[in-house]
Amino acid sequence: MKQFTVGLIGNPNSGKTTLFNALTGAHQRVGNWPGVTVEQKSGYFESENHHVEIVDLPGIYSLSVTSEESALDERIAAEYMLSNDANLIINVLDANNLERNLYLTTQLLELDVPVILAVNMLDIAKKRGITIDIDKLSNAFNCPVIGLVASKMQGVSELKRNIINTFNKPQKKQLPFTYPAEINQAISSLVSEIKNKHGYFLAVRLLEDDVLAKQKVSAQVLKLVQQYKQAISSKLNEDVDILIADTRYGMIHELVKQVVTESVHIKTTITAAVDRIVLNRILGIPIFLIVMYLMFLFAVNVGGILQDYFQVGSNAIFVHGFAHLLSNWNTPNWLIAILTSGLGKGINTVITFIPVLTTMFIFLALLEGTGYMARAGFVVDRVMTAIGLPGKSFVPMLIGFGCNVPAIMAARTLENKRDRILTIMMTPFMSCTARLAIYAVFTAAFFPKGRQNIVFALYLAGILIAIVTGLILRKTILRGRQSTLVTELPPYHLPTIPNVLMQTWCRLKMFLFKAGKVIIPACVIIGALNTINIDSKHSLLATAGREITPILNPIGIQQDNWPATVGLMTGVVAKEVVVATLNTLYAVDSYPVSDKYKGLYGQMYQRFDGQIGAFAYLLFVLLYFPCIPALATIFHELGWRWATFSMFWNTGIAYCTATLFYQAATFNEHPKYATVSIITVIMIFLSVVLTMRWISKKPNRREI
Amino acid sequence: MKQEQVLLADLIAGDKVKIIGFHKDQPSYRNKLLAMGLTLGTEFTLIRIAPLGDPIEISVRGFSLILRKNEAKILKLERVT
Prior knowledge:
The structure holds 2 protein chains of 2 kinds.
Chain A: E1 2-10, H1 16-24, E2 28-32, E3 39-47, E4 50-56, H2 72-82, E5 88-94, H3 98-108, E6 115-120, H4 122-127, E7 130-132, H5 134-141, E8 145-147, H6 156-168, H7 181-194, H8 199-207, H9 211-216, H10 219-236, H11 240-259, E9 260-262, H12 270-278, H13 284-328, H14 333-352, H15 354-370, H16 372-385, H17 394-400, H18 404-410, H19 417-426, H20 433-446, H21 451-475, E10 486-489, H22 497-531, H23 540-548, H24 562-570, H25 577-588, H26 599-607, H27 610-623, H28 628-638, H29 640-665, H30 671-697
Parallel strand pairs in A: 1-4, 1-5, 5-6, 6-8
Antiparallel strand pairs in A: 2-3, 3-4, 7-9
Chain B: E1 5-6, E2 16-22, H1 27-35, E3 43-49, E4 56-60, E5 63-67, E6 75-79
Antiparallel strand pairs in B: 1-6, 2-3, 2-6, 3-4, 4-5
């Protein structure tokens, strides 16, 4: 059996993913591109005694690698092309927008590798009265062109046949245009200097100031390029990159005139009609808010109800059932305790997330698949640019109010790495529904009147701290220009159910297996610490909590309220655990309370310093340590550095904020102590920020 | 008759303009625009302005593109009538 590799490339929204699924079916793998956390999908098909490996490349408009960080996708694609891993390239083109899609084609044809053009979405084109002369297109480039409707599997088997034919008998493709004579001359002399299989491609890229191409050639060649560029622009009175783009698009425009015929001229498309309402100056924002509201309604109602079943069911199986099973096997009690409250509870935690994640991911896939995501970005861009982020980052942050985990994963929809990091670092401050459960208990105990105001204040505090974090990061370790906005608004599109499900499953799988690998061991450690007793009454964790309680004095936690400290420690698994821990520990370490307040509320009332102490604690709970599932997701998306940063930054800022609030609010009771604490906290905060600034200014700092 | 240059910020929905040049700064942004087909002599129509006044949606070479006013300043434009 002969084996070879095919790279699949095309513009975003050209139906590339649909074609990839059509070609490979169930034979797919997901991995990462070397050195970056960008998903790489690959798969294969077998036909006519050939094993054909297909690599799905990022959706891009151009292979130019610019200095902007958003050029990561372009860099991945260009690196792949230059690596010679592919024996053949399939370029997917949207039949409805051939002109812009062919720009990438003109770049691909300059590479020394056979190319097949796959003209996709012919059905939609037909509906719009567009016909494409496939033969003429094929003649122009002298390469095979296949017409397709990938979503209906039309043309897919012909494409497979053609892939194998072309691999065995590649045609000599051609560029149906010539650059101005001066540029041509420069290219041919550069080609002889570069000495690379893809010399022609590199030469053109160099003249266009491509960052990647510059890294691939010697300093001598670079000097030559500079000379040519100056000579050409002084002679032709225009910069070389403008002239090259002009030549390409000039040729494409003429070619499209010959190849594409529009039989009926449709005045307004459905997309244009819908956008007149959806992007309307007055209705645009209300519609955006309604869509987001529907997402929450769906996630809370459908996901929330199922969550209870998943929680109770998996708890019964993995915690209680597991314990029962182990005790039947005469396992020692301490081991049962560790296994069930560690391993069992860890699995239980992961499983509990499934319903909410699934509903959020389905909604996210719909937002992206229909084309609304880009429009949401358009509507709220202005709001987000104020804090240096693109409009699209609004959606992940909003999802954060439901649950931080899908929010962090949704940040993948952002092209620019810096935007993605900023969004992910800000997301944990969005107060999720798990934290709402804690507010509910505390406000019921301490703020019987005006509960909603307290909860609202906490949400606002979270948003405020997120913005402060974003601004500080942007001025220190994430310095740089804001990413520019050049985004296509794709026509509306009804996503197919398999595509939505596939995308949902991919994301869910990533959480279950990749994040699960971090979550479960962390739960085992905390579970073990929580069950190993060193004296008859208290676990290791409880003892440790009691020991470190003095650290929390500035936020108003006194020694007798050590269960509050332990609550914070167990709360890292999932924040709602805080309340359960308080409940358990107060029962063990009971305290005489007046008849007026009994049970959990009574204990809380006795031990927290009234409303001020309770609010300070809630502030801390809101801001500190992202829960382990969130942290595991950050770790998977951005690596351990950022996960560690998030851990320390959030806990630090929680400590500072809660201290400032508590000390300011109780200033008159102990002015000296308050003054010292406030000054200390501010000094620590400032020194951390200054250190971050200093790190960012070091000339040889590591790339993030 | 020579057409007067117009600024992107002064356009209203439905206006049609032609690209007559680029300002020198922002080479990587310019590169992105060129790849999207905003080359010399290309005409485009302003479709709408976002609810909050920025960004803008334009129609160029048969598709819709969104740009921020402040960034797209690098385009030198003239009105097409």
